[in-house]
Specification:
It contains 17 helices and 16 strands. It is of the alpha/beta class and 508 residues long. The protein has 3 domains: 272 residues, Alpha-Beta Barrel (TIM Barrel); 62 residues; 114 residues, 2-Layer Sandwich (Double Stranded RNA Binding Domain), CATH 3.30.160.270. The strands form 4 sheets. An 8-stranded parallel beta barrel has the order 1-2-3-4-5-6-7-8, surrounded by 7 helices. Helix 6 packs across helix 7 and helix 7 runs parallel beside helix 8. The protein is globular. It starts with 6 loop residues before the first strand and ends with a helix. Bound molecules: 3-methyl-2-oxobutanoic acid and zinc ion (ZN). 3-methyl-2-oxobutanoic acid binds next to strand 5 and strand 6.
């Protein structure tokens, strides 16, 4: 492998899942890990097994099912944590134990209440303990960028002696600035005599909006692994965005002169999958994967792009797999054409999934003149990649207006039986959700609600992403329909289905 090769370490399922309000079940995590493998990331951090039985099960399922990439599990530098992490990881083809301990004086004094000597000894013991299980061990010096650099260098030297194969230097609180962070990585190379025995990694947070810039500065100064999350999700302001790092290294390859091994065409699809399963929408002006990232509004720009694309486009949207939402299928299209088209779009559906998707397509095609690639992608996420539904919406009637109390009548199917309820509310969506509550006897609180159009035109499919609190826990819901009230109620029911599913499968 060339010395210029940069390893992409994806932490969407661990640090990304620490985003407020995000809670993924095991099936969703496996689906994401499979997509990350198709994208071609080198390492997938599948979770933090000690954090909860659900996290443990998810790491174990990913370790069993996702074969090519390295599968990492995070643990504190504590023997019991390490043991449990190995238990979750041991069936992976390429397992990695990722253990961490803070090295900054602030963390030592206030959080750990330990001396530098104690922390050094603990870090070394943890790495030795992990190496008894696994030949691939990563050590992260939490809050590295705010640590005393000489103490940090000593810890790094000793953990490498103890067997760490990767040493990660996080900017845990997103405090660094690029020039300084690059210099910091260079200093570690200068001060750690055995640094060539390990891969140096960076992990930057975005509190000052500099996570990607800091990560790239780290790479320019010798880091060979970069930790990042899809759409930049993660603790607080998030992690460095995976798609931005990849496209910066690709688009400016003459500058960085680094190699990565990625299927660029999977980037957009990966971003969409994460946003739909986490319920965290991508801001329209987000670099690379935002809705406007390749949209040219000004006449001068449009004219320029029509004459020569490179006048205003530094990347091609097709490279990242962005479909331009062209008309593809209509209501007369048959199952065969539908299947071919879905395969072209990259959806490898089995016959059962195809049946579900085709039925949903016909339903949409009846309501909508043009069914676009974006509609089809949304439909697969809504109908095929969703958890089993206990409650299905079969009827919705709303009466609402400026001078009447909004009233909703709802029918839900539960195990082939239809149940009906009516309710009033502060608005039509509220009324319908209250009617749903009456039937399910599950009472959700809508915390967050976002409506967007999947495609353009008056008959566009509306997508509603919501966050619902039930029994003190948050669930993301997603609903799709040409009718926005129906999309909203479906989103609410989707979250209730997730809650119900989790109750039936407590370790998922
Ligand atoms: O931000 C951080 O320091 C981390 C470590 C656990 C790697 O997420
Ligand atoms: Zn982090």
């Amino acid at each position: 492998m060339s010395g210029n090769r940069i390893y992409l370490f994806d932490t969407t399922l661990r640090d990304g899942e620490q985003s407020p309000g995000v809670s993924l079940n095991v099936e969703e995590k496996v689906e994401i890990a499979q997509q990350l493998a198709r994208l071609g990331v080198d390492i997938i951090e599948a979770g933090f097994p000690i954090a909860s039985p659900g996290d443990f099960t998810a790491v174990q399922a990913i370790a069993r099912q996702v074969r090519e990439p390295v599968i990492a599990g995070l643990c504190r530098a504590i023997p019991h944590d390490i043991d449990r992490t190995w238990e979750a990881l041991c069936e992976a083809e390429n397992p990695r134990i990722h253990t961490f301990l803070a090295t900054s004086d602030i963390h030592l004094k206030y959080k750990l209440q330990k001396s530098r000597e104690e922390v050094l000894a603990q870090a070394v013991e943890a790495v030795k303990h992990a190496r008894r299980y696994c030949s691939d061990v990563e050590f992260s010096a939490e809050d590295a960028s705010r640590s005393d650099v000489d103490f940090l260098a000593l810890v790094i030297e000793k953990v490498i002696d103890a067997g760490a194969t990767v040493v990660n230097l996080p900017d845990t609180v997103g405090y660094a600035v690029p020039e300084e962070f690059g210099q910091f990585i260079r200093t570690i190379y200068e001060k750690v005599p055995n640094i060539d025995k390990a891969i140096v990694s960076v992990h930057c947070h975005d509190d000052l909006g500099m996570a990607v810039a800091n990560s790239l500065a780290g790479i320019a100064n010798g880091a060979r692994q970069v930790e990042c999350a899809v759409n930049g999700i993660g603790e607080r302001a998030g992690n460095a965005a995976l798609e931005e790092i990849i496209m910066a290294l690709y688009t400016r390859r003459a500058f960085y002169e680094k190699d990565i091994n990625i299927n660029y065409g999977e980037l957009f699809r990966t971003s969409r999958l994460i946003s739909s399963l986490t319920g965290m929408q991508v801001q329209p002006n987000k670099a690379i994967v935002g809705k406007n990232a390749f949209a040219h509004e000004s006449g001068i720009h449009q004219d320029g792009v029509l004459k020569e694309r490179t006048t205003y486009e530094i990347m091609s949207p097709e490279l990242i797999g962005l479909s331009r939402g062209t008309l593809v299928l209509g209501k007369h299209s048959g199952r065969h054409a539908f299947k071919e088209h879905m395969t072209e779009l990259g959806f490898a559906l089995n016959e059962d999934e195809l049946d579900v998707a085709f039925a949903a397509f016909k339903e949409i095609a009846d309501k909508k003149k043009e069914v676009t690639n974006d509609d089809l992608e949304a439909l697969v996420k809504d109908k095929v990649w969703s958890i089993p539904e206990r409650f299905t919406l079969t009827y919705l009637h709303i009466s609402s207006g400026t001078s009447i109390v909004p009233t909703a009548t709802v029918k839900l199917t539960i195990e082939n039986m239809v149940f009906e309820a009516a309710a009033t509310g502060d608005g039509p969506v509220d009324a319908a959700c209250r009617a749903v509550d009456k039937i399910t006897d599950i009472y959700g609180k809508m915390l967050d609600y976002k409506l967007s159009a999947v495609s353009s035109g008056k008959d566009a499919l509306g997508e509603v992403l919501s966050h619902i609190e039930i029994d003190g826990k948050q669930y993301g819901g997603r609903g799709l329909s040409t009718d926005i009230i129906e999309a909203s109620v479906k989103s609410y029911i989707n979250a209730i289905n997730k809650y119900y599913y989790e109750k039936q499968h407590p370790h998922s």
